[in-house]
Amino acid sequence: MKPFTYERAVSVRSAAIAAAGNPQARFIAGGTNLLDLMKLQIEAPAHLIDVNGLGLDRIESSADGGLRIGAIVRNTDLAAHASVRRDYGLLSRALLAGASGQLRNKATTAGNLLQRTRCPYFYDTNMPCNKRQPGAGCSAIGGVTRQHAVVGGSQACIATHPSDMAVALRALDATVETMRADGRQRRIPIADFHRLPGDTPHIETSLERSELITAVTLPAPVGGTHIYRKVRDRASYAFALVSVAAIVQKDGSGRVALGGVAHKPWRVEKAEALLPLGARATTAALLEGARPTPENEFKITLAERTLAGVLAQAKG
């Protein structure tokens, strides 16, 4: 790990100003992903800005009947919160499907959204990776691709987004709140927060440099049956091959987002109109234009069968 300097921010604005004044600075809260990347020298910040003392650890009801989740609320606390368990069960289940108990005790809401891909070529600094070093090439293309994206990828990157929480937030129509160094605040719909790789896979979100996430908000509850089903290679502490986050209403309508299939949580709203027709029609619309490799084409069938299981569970 390379040497770095450190400061504890005293306000949200001062944290953003400090980051704006140092292009080599990074925010740190739980550090469950950043510290790993620093040890491997994939990330080598010259300065860390600790945002743990900024009062961003509260979960509050919002005026519109929704919920406002502070950026550094720990995953364990969020999963166990009474309002989340009662009204947004999808989110609680997704959180508990991710990582380990020890990691969930430290990991934060904002950090979960910002965690980097788990593509093995990204973590192997001996291999070219456009996400780690723009223009270097993508070792995954032509390499081992079982875990990689089947839809939304590009010739520059076919990595998948690893978060379970983000898939649930996509189905829940969450919004990400931020503050810039000039004091301006921004509300970013979760649909626009994560980017597809295109020719710039190293740019993963719509955040500007030094822009600090302050909260995630959820709209008023929509009812329905909330299900998160994750398929992985072992029962715990593994990333999704495919995951399905769904809210299913009594009439069969609802929402669905997929994890493990794309560079971002994958939701196609027009496909949701087909939910009453079943998993096959819905999955075909969700994954229209998919370009799997021979090693990961199984994900298309797996997504359909996982969604079928979710719809059957919702019927009771």
Strand order in the largest sheet: 4-5-8-6-7
Q: Quaternary status of these chains? A: single chain
Radius of gyration: 19 Å
Question: Which geometry do the CA atoms define?
Answer: globular
CATH architecture of the largest domain: 2-Layer Sandwich
Give the helices and strands as they follow along the chain. Answer: EHEHEEEHHHHHHHEEHEEEEHH
Task: Determine and state the CATH class of the largest domain.
Answer: Alpha Beta
Query: What's the CATH topology name of the largest domain?
Result: Uridine Diphospho-n-acetylenolpyruvylglucosamine Reductase, domain 3
Question: How many separate domains make up the residues?
Answer: 3
Q: What is the first-to-last residue Cα distance?
A: 52 Å
Mean pLDDT: 97
Keywords: FAD, Flavoprotein
Protein name: Xanthine dehydrogenase family protein subunit M
Domain FAD-binding PCMH-type: 1-223
InterPro entries: CO_DH_flav_C, CO_DH_flav_C_dom_sf, Diverse_Substr_Oxidored, FAD-bd_PCMH, FAD-bd_PCMH-like_sf, FAD-bd_PCMH_sub1, FAD-bd_PCMH_sub2, Mopterin_DH_FAD-bd
